[in-house]
Amino acid sequence: MKKTVIGYMCYTDFLHELGEAAGGVSVYSSMDDILNNRSCATSCGVARVKVKFLKTDISSNFKDGVLSTEITHYRAQSKRLEEQAKFCLAYADKLEKEAEEKEKGKMVSHDDEETSPS
Predict the structure, then answer these.
(1) Which is nearest to 40 in space by CA: 109, 95, 105?
(2) Are 1 and 57 in contact (CB under 8 A)?
(3) CA distances from 108 to 73, 82, 97, 98 (A)
(4) CA torsion, points 78, 10, 54, 19, in degrees to nearest 10?
(5) How far lies 81's CA from each of 7, 35, 58, 64, 101, in Å?
(6) Which class for 10: exposed (0-12), middle (13-18), buried (19 or more C-beta within 10 A)?
(7) Which residues pair with 50 in a beta bridge?
């Protein structure tokens, strides 16, 4: 088993979420992988990280079989992605509202310039 692995993360996740995010964060195996799976990578940036294995805190227990373990894993992944999607949509809505407010402010200031007496 490799003790240290190089991975790639959304730079915003690295700065603000690593160690704090309730559902964890994603680390991708290659630059291509993150660019193909994280639409924000080109705007947020990409951090190259080193993940180091320290120890196993909970040993594997396959008494219920691998299939049961996979089902649990995919359900957890789905929940995490759903939460992340809700967060991203809410953030996109916020940015959109801010952009609209900024645009309204520009339109008001342009109108004022056009109607002010010379």
Answers:
(1) 95
(2) no
(3) 52, 39, 16, 15
(4) -80
(5) 19, 17, 24, 25, 30
(6) buried
(7) 6
pTM for the model stands at 0.50
4-63 confidence digits (pLDDT tens) = 999 999 999 999 887 777 788 899 999 999 999 999 999 999 999 999 988 888 877 666
* Span 59-117, pLDDT tens digits: 776 665 666 667 777 888 888 888 889 989 999 999 999 999 888 887 765 555 554 44
Residue 89 phi, psi dihedral angles, 5° rounding: -65, -40
- Token pair, residue 111, equals 């109108």
